[in-house]
């Protein structure tokens, strides 16, 4: 029998799997089984101030960032909601209003 991880949102132990997603009946939270495996491996990403980041956090950009392949700039103070953590050089995937989907480095953001 496969042991499923506890819910990362409410820590309930009664999670179940539905296809690729893991679901919590207590709070209704859904997350991907691959994200759960990454979190079990100890993927810890911290912002510029040393705060631990999690999926779904809101962060603020702390430096003007040039957008590669464009003349646009993401200005300092831009709020980015509902981030997703990934492994790699650019460890945050997000959508920024006016720019669309992009990847950011955690060293250029601060948790709100």
Task: Describe this structure as you would to a colleague.
- Helices cover 7% and strands 29% of the residues.
- It has 112 residues and is mainly beta.
- The strands form 4 sheets. The chain has a 3-stranded antiparallel beta sheet with strand order 1-2-3.
- Strand 5 and strand 6 (73-74) form a beta hairpin.
- The longest helix is centred in the N-terminal third of the chain and has 8 residues, at 33-40.
- The mean pLDDT is 87.
Q: How would you briefly describe this protein structure?
A:
This protein is mainly beta. It is built from one helix and eleven strands; from the N terminus they run E-E-E-H-E-E-E-E-E-E-E-E.
Briefly note the structural class of the backbone. mainly beta
Number of strands: 11
Based on CA atoms alone, the radius of gyration comes out at 16 Å
Shape: elongated
Low-confidence stretches: none
Strand numbers in spatial order across the main sheet? 1-2-3
As a percent range, the share of helical residues equals under 10%
Our measurement of the CA-to-CA distance between the termini, rounded to an integer number of angstroms, reads: 40 Å
The count of helical stretches stands at 1
Strand content: 25-35%
What composes the largest sheet?
3 strands, antiparallel
Written as H for each helix and E for each strand, in order along the chain, the element string is: EEEHEEEEEEEE
| Average predicted confidence as pLDDT | 87
Strand-helix topology:
Elements: E1 16-18, E2 21-23, E3 30-32, H1 33-40, E4 59-61, E5 65-66, E6 73-74, E7 79-80, E8 84-85, E9 92-96, E10 100-104, E11 109-111
Antiparallel strand pairs: 1-2, 2-3, 4-7, 4-11, 5-6, 8-9, 9-10
